[in-house]
Amino acid sequence: MSERTVEVRCRPLEAAQWEDFERLMRTSRTCSTCWCMWWRMTRRDFRRATGDSRYEAMRGRVASGDVPGVLAYRGDEPVGWCSVAPRQSFPGLESSPSLRPRDDRPAWAITCFYVAPAWRRRGVMRALLDAAVEHARAGGATLVEGYPVERRDGRMPSGDAYTGLVRVFEEAGFVPLVRATPRRWVMRRGVDAEPGARRVLQAYCDAWNRWDLDALFALFADDAVYRGTHRVLEGRDAIRQMYEASRAQGLTSGLLARVVPLVSGTWGVELYRQRGQGGHEIVALKHMVVRGDRILGHDLVEGDAAAGELAPAAATRGV
Fold first, then answer.
1. Closest Cα partner for 81 from 44, 135, 137?
2. Of 127, 136, 255, 273, which sits 20 to 30 A from 76 (CA to CA)?
């Protein structure tokens, strides 16, 4: 079968779409006994329940007005499903030793995917992921979490990938928060984050590390804004003059830059000094606002506050 990406349309699962959801779930023996209740119940309650009682539980939720996720359609045919809701909606997630909440930031959780066999490897998971983020945004979310797995050598059994794939989440702009198990990551995305931000910020770091200000400021918008500890600068030219003055005064000499994941579900730029035996000292952190292929501005955070905003995954060099 061809693996080219196909266009699908996605929409939230509401009562009017229940028959489509049911039809899709019945294409899988696992889904037609789980009914996407694995994370929505405690482990004890899930194991005590039957396939029929889980079916009734999900149908009751949808009939009452709950919108537990999004469906993907190819024409009129339902071809995929993604579960997304506020994290507290998932008792199984809240009590999981490896996927428990890492902090008290309110977040929506993307807990599982199902794509009908005939439509796998066609871009449906990515379309569902994008739609899930938009659904969370419409529901008032500012932060979305997912729990995807890494594909290792060879093909991965489809059942192992039900929480999504790291590669797909990365493409959609999610950043690694922490490795939960040897194969599974907790990943986050601020709903307003730019999916291509990491590429832009890597170009920024490359230019910084060779101190090529022409290349670096080619990434900035003309009306970019810099917010530091003691001042605000407006305009690319003003920010460049500040960079040049800081270097002339020796304030940034010896500082290297790298892209790092932040607990806020975005990418930032860490300025650091290398220390002996592979260590490094964090000097400052830059929150970068990226739209398209341009940096609109950045906020500078210094000292201990900078370290506190790094995702635990940032401790792994090269994430």
1. 135
2. 136
Total count of domains within the chain? 2
In this structure, is residue 307 part of a structural domain? yes
Per-residue tokens: 37: 């209740």
| Helix residue ranges, H only, the chain | 18-25, 31-34, 43-48, 51-63, 91-94, 124-138, 166-171, 197-209, 213-217, 236-248, 304-308
CA angle 292/298/301 to nearest 5° reads 145
Among 42-46, 187-191, 209-213, 309-313, whose mean pLDDT is lowest? 309-313
Beta-bridge mates of residue 227: 232, 299
- 4 in a domain, yes or no? no
Q: Which two tokens stand for residue 201?
A: 């910020």
Cα separation of 295 and 197, whole Å?
Answer: 9
Burial 83-117 (b: 16+ CB within 10 A, else e): bbbebebbebbeeeeebebbeeeebbbbbbbbbbe
pLDDT tens-digit map of 246-279? 999 998 999 999 999 999 999 999 999 988 766 7
Place of tokens 């991965």: 156
Please tell me whether residues 164 and 270 are part of one structural domain. Answer: no
Q: How far apart are alpha carbons 304 and 97 in whole angstroms?
A: 29
Q: Residue 188: beta bridge partners?
A: 145, 175
- Its pTM stands at 0.88
CATH number of domain containing 175:
3.40.630.30
Q: Which of 174, 190, 206 is the last residue of a domain?
A: 190
Q: Domain span at residue 92?
A: 9-190
Which pair of structure tokens corresponds to residue 152? 């290792």
Does residue 22 contact residue 35 with C-beta atoms inside 8 Å? no
Residues 142, 25 within the same domain: yes
